[in-house]
Amino acid sequence: MNSNIRNFCIIAHIDHGKSTLADRFLEFTGTVSKRDMKNQLLDSMDLERERGITIKLTPVRMEYKSHLEVTPKDPSNQPQGILHSVQNDNKNDYILNLIDTPGHVDFNYEVSRSLAAVEGAVLLVDATQGVQAQTIGNLYLAIEQNLEIIPVINKIDSPAANIEKTKAEIIHLLGCKEEDIILASGKTGQGVEEILQTIIKKIPAPLDFGTKPPRALIFDSSYNEFKGVVASVRVTDGQLKKGDKIYLMTTQTPAEVLELGYYTPKFQPSDSIKNGEIGYIVTGLKEVRDCRVGDTITTLNSEKTGLATEPLPGYKEVKAMVYAGIFPSEGDGYEELRDAIDRLKLSDSALIYEPEHSQALGFGFRCGFLGMLHLDIFQERLHREFNLEVVITVPSVAYKIEKTNNVSLTIHSPQEMPEPNHILSIMEPWMTLDIITPKDYVGNVMTLISERRGRYLNTEYLSTGSDQRALLHYQIPLAALITDFYDKLKTVTSGYASMNYELIGYEKTDVVKIEILVAEEPVEALATLVWREDAFHIGKKICESLKDSLPRQQFELKIQAAIGGKVIASDRLGALRKDVIAKLYGGDVTRKMKLLEKQKKGKKRMMAHSKIDIPSSAYLAVLKR
Ligand code: GTP
Fold it and tell me: Among 52, 282, 556, 604, which residue has the fewest nearby CB atoms (within 10 Å)?
């Protein structure tokens, strides 16, 4: 009987207060005592707590004694095809399973898997910000999963809260009634009880499939130092027990349940997890990659395959979107870097990497990321957890190339680009892009997008009135989003805009490789793939920003951008002039000339043997071109 279980998520735009509200739930239900409470308890990584963003989701099971008499949702009101179990005997004892989800678009797949593991979602909207792009992005994912949505306006304690406007936007978005929207504050705890009561009232209990062969959806997997690979699961059918021989259906990997139980939010071992419940399984697997998010666990039958024959729907291989070379900034740091990346991979199954060698940068790795934030977090974790400084090459998207000899290939870096005369056609990834901005900035956003080759589709308005906000729909090449698009968007909208994006497919394009030469030597890590039309302009900009960020040398430094050996832009950084004649007071002009002449020769010699040290600030300058 599952009637006292409620499984739910909180969905929200980044920073709208999910983790803080989750903390209040834990406190209110007595799951974590006030004494043990540290802020944002579910964000377990230091980095998450510091930046205040959720990277990994952490499920938690709360036991809740409801004080009020709750009438469960009338099964006859449910959408067709969904049956609901009857009320249990201990009417007021509930088990609430909360999955906290990451807010950022890079981690969308994790959000969609969490949503597949629950029956309802609390849609949290910050009263000081209103509906934002990822509010809508995540809401659509929830609606696709047929979830019951509970709208909540958060941060109503804040002096900057605009409750009426936020209400209007939510009503416009959901078509709900005003009285359906709960007003809350994760900070003061206001509204927390009402949210929990509404969850019990409105979110359907999980369906009872207790007699079917066991199936469980993996919605997260991680590596624990003491337990090995741990899967977070929603059991949909049957039950799983300690000691069960299990089978991962997509990867066709057998494993064993060494331990299982619930998150409270610590590991709380148990003998079994039943259908409808959320918990963890210690799998005994060595690698997180064998235990993929979205896969289905069943038990092993006598033929050594799964007892259940149909995996749960919706499994998707997560694909990297942005690629970059990662090299140790010190020449001999390769082994350390390799160990660090191997370790990070244990807890980051979306990260992909393979060894790469570059003449200039030595041995390193070509890595694939879900997006720029993922890359950013990766770099910061290398620095923070492993004390490693790295050089990151200009990020690139994947290009599909058709060569003249009919061979097709996918490249992820400028270094892999074939000679121009071997290329028949190039395709690049395109995205849908949704931007929400106050009406006054629509013009600026339009200009920015058209500079970046976006295609305008249409505009919706989120509410009426003088401070109306627009939801703009576009399509845009991914390459246009990965350099500094988000920074620019924030600048042109005084920080008000938010965005959400998703891959739609590949389209034909015309790109060329720009090489950058410093002191006439190509700097491989600065090479970049750009649209042919923009090549001259970008080449010029890169030269300029390098001129500003490279340290002056004893000699004049030539900085050039070239395509296929032909220089398209160049700049010069003047020499650092040591004052060799400072010691001479007045007098002998020929002596001065002699010294200057000697200095010049010295500089020439140095130039011939130079290898310029390019500081990482110069790479950054190029990235922000
Ligand atoms: P992500 O996980 O990164 O998506 O963020 P989040 O949605 O979990 O937001 P988080 O709980 O980290 O809160 C974001 C910021 O809002 C923090 O600075 C909180 O202190 C603040 N905050 C959260 N809830 C409230 C609230 O009810 N009132 C006020 N005034 N501030 C709040």
Answer: 604
Q: Where are the beta strands (DSSP E) in 554-606?
A: 557-563, 566-573
Query: Are residues 453 and 479 in contact, defined by beta-carbon separation less than 8 angstroms?
Result: no
- Which tens digit of pLDDT belongs to each residue from 472-506? 999 999 999 887 788 889 889 888 888 888 889 99
Q: What is the pLDDT of residues 552-569, one digit of tens each?
A: 777 788 999 999 889 999
Cβ–Cβ < 8 Å for 506, 400: yes
Q: Which atom of ligand 1 is nearest to the CA of 10?
A: 7
Task: Tell me the CA end-to-end span of the chain in Å, nearest whole number.
Answer: 60
CA nearest ligand 1 atom 29, residue? 155
Which atom number of ligand 1 is nearest to the Cα of residue 154? 27
> What element of type H or E holds 22?
helix 18-28
Q: Token pair of 395, please?
A: 């990020």
Q: Do residues 82 and 204 lie in contact, with contact meaning Cβ atoms separated by under 8 Å? A: yes
Q: Taking the complete model, does pTM exceed 0.90, yes or no?
A: no
* Site of tokens 């090995």: 228
Residues 511 and 426: beta-carbon distance below 8 Å = yes
Token pair of 481 as six digits: 């989003």
Tokens, residue 194: 């009402």
Q: Which two tokens stand for residue 141?
A: 């994912």
Q: H or E stretch including 506?
A: strand 498-509
Percentages of the chain per state (helix, strand, coil), in multiples of 5: 30, 30, 40
- Choose the residue to mutate in 16, 20, 114 for probing ligand 1, maximizing ligand atoms within 8 Å of C-beta: 20
| 204 preceded by a cis bond (ω within 30 of 0) | no
Q: How many residues does the chain have?
A: 625
